[in-house]
Each structure stands twice: as structure tokens, then as C-alpha cells.
Design goal:
By secondary structure, this protein is an alpha+beta fold. The chain has helices at 33-41, 44-53, 81-86, 93-97, 118-125, 139-142, 157-171, 178-197, 201-209, 213-217, 227-238, 247-256, 258-271, 276-290, 294-297, 301-325, 330-345, 348-358; strands at 2-6, 30-31, 54-56, 61-63, 100-105, 108-113, 133-137. Helix 16 packs across helix 17 (330-345).
Length: 359
């Protein structure tokens, strides 16, 4: 069994009540079947309360949120009363794992940390060196009868993993601006997609083996930054569902000020050039999390274009803050990245709509 994860994964730990936000409010908290059964048989007052706060139907169980859309077990100090009363082992899967995410490919698994969590953002954006990944091996798990290693491995898995390394290399080419890197990445993805559509494993590996230099030297995908194209993109983002009802209004503001924001964006990026690595980390994060979906969809353009679109929308939100206040802090960086992640990444309907649009 192989497990890949970001090199800062092991450093993450929930900071609980010290967090300026909480992951226990604002969205439905689904309870997995095994934990739901534990809750139904729990004794004492906490057991009675667990059963009283659960909503059940034929397909799933979840907690009944308060009028403020908070988990009923989240106390005034933003601490979990289930952990206090019973311990972390009584948490349902989603509460125990969040903000971790996983993807499984036969005997190969990828794990990561979502940017919906401010502590994850803090760990990511404070680093100056390029984001790296580590591989762990578990030979014992491979020998279990029900191991994912028994699943058939797709013949395109390894070629696509190699191709993604080239995508990382392009995104992390610090001798070029992020705009240059994104243009190169988009052009590279179009050529890669042709090989993927043909299920040409050798072609994918050959393109991955070329490295990043040829693509970074090309001037391509200029329209990515043209006002008309950005306006189309923001119009699509404007009609997405919103967790707290404010997302559409934020996009409206960007659309109304778009010419000004696009002009100011260049000045903003120039002023904070020493923090350009933060956008690099964002690009690599989105590529790591979504690139390998091409293995299931048979198309690499949506995840690469999503990385580019996400970076641009976040940059426009950042520029707006800078214009209004005159500075841009670490807290602003965390706020914007977390906002985007919660509103977009953690809404399956939004991700599906963007996938179709970016095709």
C-alpha cells in the first residue's frame, strides 16, 4: 500500500477553540452508519441527547443544526461536547477526518488537507520553500484480503502521475512570474489532453519527460487574462450556490469593478512579489487535489483550468481588499483562501457546474 501526502501533513493538528472559525457550523454534518449505530446504543444523558439531536432517513443520518446553523454539540467555547464527554473515538468519520481528504487508486492512495481550515492555510502559506510530497509504504496492509491493493490498477495511473510532476514543475518555476507559469500550464494541458483522449500512455509519458522549460518559454493563452474572458468566468462563479448567501454578492462586486481590478491586479502582484510563493502553493494544492480526476473523467483540461481559474478569482478578491484598505496581511490571505475553499470546493454542485463550464 502506497500513501502520498503533503510534507506538512504530519504537522497539522486541530487548534479547537483557538480557531477563529469553526468547521462545526454552516453545513450539514453527516453521520456514517457505523457511528450512527454507536450513538443509538450510547448510554447516559449524552446518549439520550445524541439520539434526540439525530435526524434519520433511509439513506443517511445527520445532526439537527441549531437556528444559527451550528452543530448542537458545539458549545460556547467552540469545543465539541461529544469529545468532552466520550472522547475523540466517538466522533463520526467526517468530524474525525475533516479537513483531510483522500483519493484511492487501487493500492495507491493520496491524502491531503483542505484549505477550508485556517490552520491548514497557516501551515501552507507560512512556508517559503516549494511544496513537496512524501510517500509512505505499508506492506502489512497489502497482505490483507480486503486491501485496496486487490483492485485493478489503471494503466494510465503512472503516466498521469508523472505528468502531474511536470505540472508541479511548471507551477514552481520561480524564475518566471505566476502569470507566465499559468499560461504555460494551460497550453501544456491542452497537448496532454490530446494524448489522454487517445489513451496514449506512451505519449503522456513522453510529454511528462520533456519537463517545463519548453512550455515556460512560450507565450501562450494570453486570452486567459483578457477582460471578456474573465467576465465570462466571474459570471459563472456568480450563479454558484453559496454557503452563507454572500458569495454571489462578492462576485457582483468584482464584476462591477473588473476593469479597475484587472489593472490594479498587476500593481498588487508587483508590490507583494516576495509573497508570490503563496499563489504558487495554491496552484500546486489545486493540481494535487484535482489533477488525477482525469483518470476517471478521461480529460485533464477541467482540473488544470480549475486551478488557473481558482488562482485568478482569489487574486481578484485579494486585489479588492488591497484597494479598499491599502495593505494585505497574512490574515487576509487565510480569509480569502478559506472563503474560496468553503464556498467552492466543499459544494459538490458548484464543483460539477464549474467542471462542465471549464470543459
Amino acid at each position: 500500500m502506497r500513501l502520498r501526502r503533503p510534507d506538512f501533513y504530519r504537522d497539522f493538528s486541530c487548534i479547537g477553540g483557538a480557531c477563529g472559525d469553526t468547521c462545526c457550523a454552516g453545513w450539514e454534518i453527516e453521520i456514517d452508519g457505523e457511528t450512527a449505530e454507536k450513538y443509538r446504543s450510547a448510554g447516559g444523558k449524552i446518549g439520550e441527547r445524541l439520539r434526540a439531536e439525530m435526524e434519520n432517513d433511509e439513506e443517511e443520518s445527520c445532526f439537527r443544526l441549531t437556528e444559527e446553523r451550528r452543530c448542537p454539540f458545539l458549545n460556547g467555547d467552540n469545543l465539541c461536547e461529544i469529545i468532552i464527554a466520550l472522547g475523540e473515538e466517538w466522533l463520526c468519520d467526517i468530524c474525525r477526518e475533516h479537513p483531510r481528504f483522500y483519493q484511492w487508486f487501487g493500492d495507491y492512495t493520496e491524502a491531503g488537507l483542505g484549505l477550508c481550515c485556517e490552520e491548514v492555510c497557516r501551515l501552507l502559506f507560512r512556508r517559503k520553500e516549494p511544496l513537496r510530497f512524501e510517500m509512505l509504504y505499508d506492506e502489512e496492509e497489502d497482505r490483507e484480503d480486503d486491501s485496496p491493493g486487490e483492485l485493478e490498477e489503471d494503466f494510465l495511473l503512472e503516466p498521469l502521475l508523472k505528468a502531474r510532476e511536470t505540472a508541479f514543475a511548471i507551477a514552481q518555476s520561480r524564475n518566471c512570474s505566476m502569470d507566465q507559469r499559468i499560461r504555460a500550464l494551460l497550453a501544456w494541458a491542452e497537448e496532454l489532453d490530446a494524448h489522454l483522449q487517445a489513451e496514449d500512455a506512451e505519449g503522456i509519458e513522453a510529454l511528462a519527460g520533456e519537463g517545463s522549460i519548453r512550455w515556460l518559454r512560450r507565450q501562450c493563452c494570453e486570452k486567459y487574462f483578457e477582460e471578456a474572458e474573465v467576465r465570462k468566468l466571474l459570471e459563472q462563479y456568480r450563479v454558484l450556490e453559496s454557503l452563507d448567501g454572500t458569495w454571489g454578492g462578492r462576485m457582483e462586486k468584482l464584476l462591477k469593478r473588473l476593469p479597475e481590478l484587472l489593472e490594479a491586479r498587476r500593481d498588487f502582484l508587483a508590490e507583494y512579489r516576495e509573497r508570490e510563493c503563496e499563489y504558487e502553493h495554491l496552484a500546486v494544492y489545486f493540481l494535487y487535489r484535482y489533477f488525477m480526476e482525469a483518470l476517471f473523467d478521461g480529460c485533464v483540461l477541467p482540473p488544470v483550468r480549475f486551478a488557473a481559474a481558482s488562482l485568478l478569482v482569489i487574486q481578484l478578491l485579494d486585489t479588492e481588499i488591497w484597494l479598499e484598505r491599502g495593505d494585505y496581511t497574512e490574515a487576509d490571505r487565510i480569509f480569502t483562501a478559506k472563503l474560496y475553499s468553503k464556498e467552492i470546493e466543499y459544494c459538490p454542485e458548484n464543483m460539477e457546474m464549474l467542471h462542465d463550464f471549464l470543459m
